[in-house]
Amino acid sequence: MKRHLIFFLSLLFLTSCSVHQKTTAKPNIILIIGDDISWDDIGCYGNPSVHTPNIDKLAEEGLLFNNAFITSSSCSPSRCSIITGRYPHNTGAAELHTPLPVHLKFFPELLRQNGYFSALLAKWHEGESTRRAYDTLITGVDKNGTGGEAQWINVLRYRPKNRPFFLWLAPFDAHRPWSDDNMDTHHHHDPHKIRVPGTLVDDSATRNDLVAYYNEIGRLDTYIGKLQEELEAQGIADNTMIIFIGDNGRAFPGSKTRLYDRGIKTPFIIKWKNEITGGQKTNALVSSIDIAPTLLECAGIASPATVQGVSFKSLFTKPATSFRHYIFAEHNWHDYSAYERCVRTDRYLYILNKRPEWDNGGPIDANQSPSAQSLRAALKRGELDSLQLDAYIKPRPPEEFYDNTSDPLQQRNLVNDKTYTGAIDSLRKILQQWRDQTADTYPSALTADWYDRNTADSLPALGKRGEMPGASKKADTVNAKGIF
């Protein structure tokens, strides 16, 4: 009898230890950043044309965010915001291909300092100073393959097994130019069966362009499936958090570099079986600057003062609650001179444009694409509707205001509609308050166009930088969070 009692107490002790370990062990964290992927180009976000079974499975087993937004629809500024938890003009790297300064804190660095094995694979776009954030840095096509996923499983298998890990997985999929070599049948899409966005002309060139883009999303999706299989095989899936996000909208006219939802709204899914009940969705507004403090909190690490974002970990267990009142984003130089700021609420979008004399057909990879050529040909024939024509409007309105409830595509600029005078005035003031609090500036000598907007030919200003927004007020040292 005594022997049975000892066995029972031992079993109880081991069980309690197991439960305690499950709830207190630091989670492994995998952050997957899809390149140039729009939120509505994923199956679980309602796109029936694209094949994303493994991303869809993430949503089925995790938490899907319906209103997640990035801070800039431009590659490196967006990623610099994610890694620092700061707005682009507060990172000192507000323009494309500008590196982060050495004095800022990077959340993978803090994870590493607190016992995590930290690695970045494929696209390294945040500057040399971020090298210190990683134990392992494997960059470039040669080592990561054309899609950028070739090292995922190797790093998972040969990581130190005595430490929790953080992986910054930054594939090249789905960035132009397309590289759908070695695709199997699961990647290929039928050009006759896809959905063409309203911003584009529906012709064979555009459909084939979209198919190549979808094929790259399909390749990324396949590797996400392999990643999950490896986690299961190692027995670490339950306490491994997988986050999927895009850095900005698709590289097509009307999306990338735009401050509409088709530019800054992002797919965002978190799976963490130990802490998140699967199959849930949240409509709460969240910003990509909130990712850093959220992951740090999940790892039991305090956020540094430099982080402007706020943890949304509470949404893991209470997804029906609200979070942010306001989303802020900006458009700075990306091949071409620009200065736009926006504030978005759950109902409204207000955009301020300090360079309205220019059009916005997207960066070079978008405005020189087959889809763009189709748009230009239709433009000459006078066949574009208002949504397609938007990429070529010049001058643009200095202010734009949209009611997302009645106009989800944000086509009808209501800035002169007296019905909305109160809401417009309110958001105008809120945007200015945010700019003042976070030390945003509008330099008179912004970086100029490096290329011709129509032909993409190099211009005399190629390689020359102007003054960075926020530089005159040392915004990279300002930690004010701004209005929430």
Q: Level of helix content?
A: 25-40%
CATH architecture designation of the largest domain: 3-Layer(aba) Sandwich
Counted beta strands: 14
Counting H and I runs of at least 4 residues, what is the number of helices? Answer: 14
CATH topology of the largest domain: Alkaline Phosphatase, subunit A
Number of domains: 2
What kind of sheet is the major sheet? 8 strands, mixed
Specify the overall morphology.
globular
Rounded to the nearest angstrom, the radius of gyration is 23 Å
* CATH homolog superfamily of the largest domain: Alkaline Phosphatase, subunit A
What series of H and E elements makes up the topology? HEHEEHHHEEHHEHEHEEEHEEEHHHEH
In CATH, what is the class of the largest domain?
Alpha Beta
Low-confidence stretches: 1-23
Strand content: 5-15%
Structure write-up:
The chain has 484 residues and is an alpha/beta fold. It has two domains: 26-322, Alkaline Phosphatase, subunit A (3-Layer(aba) Sandwich); 329-477, Arylsulfatase, C-terminal domain, CATH 3.30.1120. It contains 14 helices and 14 strands. The chain has helices spanning 2-24, 53-61, 75-84, 88-91, 107-113, 141-144, 152-158, 204-233, 261-264, 291-298, 364-367, 370-380, 386-389, 421-437; strands at 28-34, 63-65, 68-69, 117-122, 136-139, 165-170, 240-246, 268-271, 280-282, 286-287, 327-331, 340-344, 348-353, 399-403. An eight-stranded mixed beta sheet has the order 5-4-6-1-7-8-2-9, with helices on both faces. Strands 11-12-13-14 form a four-stranded antiparallel beta sheet, with helices on one face. α7 runs parallel beside α8 (204-233). The longest helix is centred in the middle third of the chain and has 30 residues, at 204-233. The termini are far apart. The model is unreliable at 1-23 (pLDDT under 50).
